[in-house]
């Protein structure tokens, strides 16, 4: 097995973008291989038997799963500070990642699966409830952002940004710029979501709203509401 570091990714995939951001943040030198998810090469199962992206070949080993890979990025270069040393803060970061995924992203996926105007209010209510809680979590860390911890960019921002960007893309292009009420109610949440969206590693690893929407429209058969 070669000692080359190879990152297997796909532009559409938010999980893969998590790893991409983390590798950029630590300045990991790697070769990038784009996997066509609609026509996966047969050799890819030797890299990741689950045949999902992201995966990384490093030091002759193959590692998969986005949350494992962003933790690996932190472990390779702890001095960058993507995860602070304090065990309680580390737990709070991991909790925020899990919370966003189970409350915000799952409400969004649920809405996409049954994409109708009459479901918008329920979706909006779910976002408002989640952002109220996230506001508390953010204020517990720091009174201002732009990041989850305040000024230090961390794994919480890395794990959440790719999902937020894709959600926003659908809000802008398929929901006529819809925004949940809570974003105006909680300036710390708004500042945080803007802060993570404009981080260079996040912007540079994002393929753009149009690309995401075209792909979603094809995959989910969506059109603007
Ligand atoms: N739990 C995995 C999820 C990765 C995942 O679902 N990747 C999707 C693309 S976004 C994939 O590779 N799908 C291909 C397939 O399921 O065949 C992670 O966090 O890395």
Task: Throw out a few tags for this protein.
2 domains; Glutaredoxin; binds glutathione; Glutathione S-transferase Yfyf (Class Pi), Chain A, domain 2; 57% helix; globular; four-stranded mixed sheet; 10 helices; alpha+beta; 225 residues
The side-by-side strand order for the widest beta sheet comes to 2-1-3-4
Kindly state the percentage of residues in helix. Answer: 55-70%
Largest beta sheet, briefly?
4 strands, mixed
> What is the chain-wise order of helices and strands?
EHEHEEHHHHHHHH
**Count of DSSP strands:** 4
Mean pLDDT: 96
In DSSP terms, counting alpha (H) and pi (I) runs of 4 or more, how many helices?
10
CATH top level class name of the largest domain: Mainly Alpha
What is the gyration radius calculated from CA atoms?
18 Å
User: Which secondary-structure class do the elements indicate?
Assistant: alpha+beta
> Unreliable runs, pLDDT <50, ≥5 residues?
none
Distance between the termini: 50 Å
| Gross geometry | globular
% residues in beta strands: 5-15%
Bound molecules: glutathione
- Can you tell me the number of structural domains? 2
Identify the CATH architecture of the largest domain. Answer: Up-down Bundle
The CATH topology of the largest domain comes to Glutathione S-transferase Yfyf (Class Pi), Chain A, domain 2
How would you describe the overall organization of this protein?
- The chain has 225 residues and is an alpha+beta fold.
- The chain folds into two domains: 75 residues, Glutaredoxin, CATH 3.40.30.10; 134 residues, Glutathione S-transferase Yfyf (Class Pi), Chain A, domain 2, CATH 1.20.1050.
- The chain is built from ten helices and four strands; from the N terminus they run βαβαββαααααααα.
- It has a four-stranded mixed sheet, with helices on one face.
- Strand 3 and strand 4 form a beta hairpin.
- Helix 4 packs antiparallel against helix 5, helix 4 runs parallel beside helix 6 and helix 6 crosses helix 10.
- It is globular, with a radius of gyration of 18 Å.
- The chain starts with 5 loop residues before the first strand and ends in a 5-residue tail after the last helix.
- Glutathione binds next to helix 3.
């Amino acid at each position: 097995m070669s000692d080359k570091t190879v990152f297997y990714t796909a532009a559409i995939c938010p999980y893969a973008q998590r790893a991409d951001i983390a590798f950029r943040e630590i300045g990991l030198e790697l070769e990038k291989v784009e996997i066509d998810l609609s026509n996966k090469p047969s050799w890819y199962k030797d890299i990741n038997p689950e045949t999902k992206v992201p995966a990384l070949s490093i030091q002759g080993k193959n590692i998969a799963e986005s949350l494992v890979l962003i933790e690996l990025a932190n472990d390779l270069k702890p001095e960058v500070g993507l995860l602070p040393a304090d065990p309680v803060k580390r737990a709070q970061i991991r909790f925020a990642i899990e919370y966003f995924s189970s409350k915000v992203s799952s409400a969004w996926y649920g809405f996409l699966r049954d994409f109708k105007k009459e479901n918008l209010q329920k979706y909006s209510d779910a976002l408002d409830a989640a952002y109220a809680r996230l506001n508390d979590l953010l204020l517990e860390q720091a009174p201002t952002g732009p990041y989850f911890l305040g000024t230090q960019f961390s794994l919480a921002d890395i794990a959440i940004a790719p999902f937020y960007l894709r959600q926003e893309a659908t809000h802008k292009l398929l929901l006529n710029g819809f925004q949940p009420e809570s974003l105006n109610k909680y300036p710390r949440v708004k500042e945080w979501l803007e802060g993570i969206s404009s981080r260079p590693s996040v912007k540079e690893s994002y393929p753009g709203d149009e690309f995401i929407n075209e792909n979603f429209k094809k995959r989910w058969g969506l059109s603007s509401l």
